Sequence to fold (337 residues):
Amino acid sequence: MTAPDPRANADLLGHAPAERTLLDAARGGRLHHAWLIAGPAGIGKATLAYRFARRLLAGLPSEGESLWLDPGHPIFRRVAAGGHADLRTVTRTIDPRTGRLHREILVDDVRAGAEFLHRTAIEGGWRVVIVDPAELLNASAANALLKMLEEPPAAALLLLVCAAAGRLPATLRSRCRLLRLAPLADADMEAILARHLPDISAETRARLAALAEGSPGRALHLAAEEGVAMAALVDEVLNGLPSFGAARAHGVVDRLGRAESGFSTFMELLLAALAAAVRAGARGRADPDQQRLLDLRPLDAWGEVWHALSRLADETERFSLDKRQAVVSGLALLDAS
Fold:
C-alpha cells in the first residue's frame, strides 16, 4: 500500500492546529499571499495544501475548525483529477531527453506558475499555486519565485510544500508565512496505519511506525518495500561491526536481491539508524546497542561515515551505478577493524 495521492486524500490526522491557523487567517480576511508548509517528509504537508486549496476554491465553511470537504463535492473531484482551472501545481517535470523526472524544479516551470497566478480566475474566486517539493527549486527557479512574491496579485495564493526549509534562500523564506507541521503522535500513526494496512499485525504496524518516526507516508512506503525486513538486516549489519568482512557483505547483497527498491530502502534505513545513534550519543541518551556502535569510533568520525554513505547512495542513484557493488563499498565504509 502506497501513501494516498495528496490531491485526492480527504483525510488528515494530527494537524488540527495548522488547519485552524489557515481557517482563522482566511476567515479574518488576513490571509497571507504565500505560506511555507514545512516539516519532515510524509507527514501530510501536501495533503494539507490541497485540503486548503479545495476549501478556498469551494468556499470556506461557515462554522467549525476543519478544512474537510466531502469527496463527492464537484470541487473535490476536479482537484483530485487535476482538472480545476484555478489550481496549478509546480513540481518536477519529465526530461524529454531521458524520459525521467528532472532532479530539480526548473525556472520555466515557476514562470508558468507565475503567469497562471496573474491571470483572471476562471471561476471568479481564488487562484492557487502549490509548489511541491519546494526544496528542489534550483537557483534560477527560486529567484523567479522570489520575483513573484515581491509583487503578488490579488486573490492569489502560493503554497510551498517543503521538507527541508533550510535549503530555500533566506529571502524567499522571509516572504512566506511559516506553518511548521510536526511528526504525528503514536495514536494518530496507529489510526492511519490500521486504516491503510488492516491485514498486517499490530506489532508490525508498531514497528513501521517506529521506523517512520511519525511519518505515515514513510511508514506506508516502508510497508510496500519490506521495510521491517530491511530494518532487521540493518540491525544485523550494525551489530556485526567492527569487522564485517567482504564475504558477509556479499551475503547482505544477495539477501537484498536485485530489486531496484532494495538498495534505496536499505541505504535509507542504514543512514537513519546511524543518524539516530549519533544524535542519541551527542545527547547522552544512546541505548546499549547504539553505545556499543558509537564506541567503535569518535562521534565526528561517525559523522564522516554518514556523509560518505549518503554521497555513495546519492551518486549510485543519480548515475545509475551498480547497486550491488555500492552496497559492498558502503559496508566497507562501516568496517572499523
